[in-house]
Amino acid sequence: MITKDNDNLVLADSITSVDELNAVFYGRFPYPWQSFKFDYLEDPDFETRMLNQDIGAWKHDRVPPEPRIWIAGCGTNQAVLTALRFPKARVVGSDVSSKSLEICSETAKQLGITNLELKEESINQVPYREEFDYIISTGVIHHNAYPQATLAKIAAALKPDGVLELMVYNRFHWTVPAAFQKAIRLLGGNGNGHAVNFDSELLLAKAIIGELPQETFIGIVSDYREASEAMLADELLQPVLHSYTVESLVEMAGSCDLEIILPCLNQFDKAEQKYSWNVEFQNPVLREAYESLPDVKRWQVTNLLLRERSPQLWFYFQRTDSSYKRKSEKEVCEEFLNTTFVRSSTTQSSFIRKSDQSYRLLPKPISFPVKPADNLVKRIVDAVDGRGRMMEIFKDLGPAMTMPPMRARLLLASSAFPYLTAVRD
Known about the structure:
The chain is about 40% helix and about 15% strand. By secondary structure, the chain is of the alpha/beta class. The strands form three sheets. The protein has a seven-stranded mixed sheet, sandwiched between helices. The longest helix has 14 residues, at about 15-30. It is globular and about 65 Å long. The model has no long low-confidence stretch (mean pLDDT about 95).
């Protein structure tokens, strides 16, 4: 069943059959691979405060101090990471792969985690109704037969005022992998009722990567010649792959009675310095036309213009019937400028994986967050005194303050860059 030529839907026969395929695939190639390090903070409320700031809740009152959290498609370690980030939370991690859950459970046991419950279950079959304050589903629903139906199940599990963190594949990032995956299916004779043999597909993929000319567009897959089997499989052998633009993601979310709150600055975009969904145009006419657009249309323009260089489609959502009226990104930034902050401070401890694959706790915690690498960010952080509002801090810095507020909010007071904590009135 191929409904869109730029996706890989050769094997998308039914919800149940794809669940079964994913269980086999992630049993053979558990994802993500075992983490080298797990961190946790001494302040148990730190991450909850930063999550609230991510969504513009400067009083830290949107996500509660002891939230109920669901990781919808937790893989081998996302549930562990979440339980460590939110030690006061009750965390549920669901996955169709028994192997992934086995790895996750063993890691949680080694780290002494007690606030996590793991369940072998399909997101498409769960009975949850309005149970969770915060749901995380990143890199999951686009591997299902009908992502809209999967997302509807997730939306049903969200409390009326809950927050959903969702990531789906950006269409402009996944053109090559989707094409490669479909080629592998054709070469291997998989689909159309034939059983899928992922080991034979892996051999085919390795052979193609070894021979495909580097100068061809799809020749960029040769970058995977030295990759682990797990990484190669995750990129080039996925059973099913849907992809989206901002526009099609918003349309799908709307059909599930969800609306975007704000983009989520994630670890991948942070590493590539794709900090914002906003292009900072210099031409005044162009800038005015761009900045006058509503958020979603502006982000869609960014998606279309930057294409493969646009950020990941990683956003916070809420129910359309939430008692929290959605604020525009401009409104959130205006509130940021009118907020008083203090410098964030806690300590971070880390578990490190040993050669025998077990984990040990490093003896000395370190100060957290580490000092900013960006000189302007450092100047702003140093100027914060817990008394003046952010706009007053910027004014005092004078001509040196060249950072637009939309970028400053992310680089100063977000989960990705948690240098400042809002002072609650």
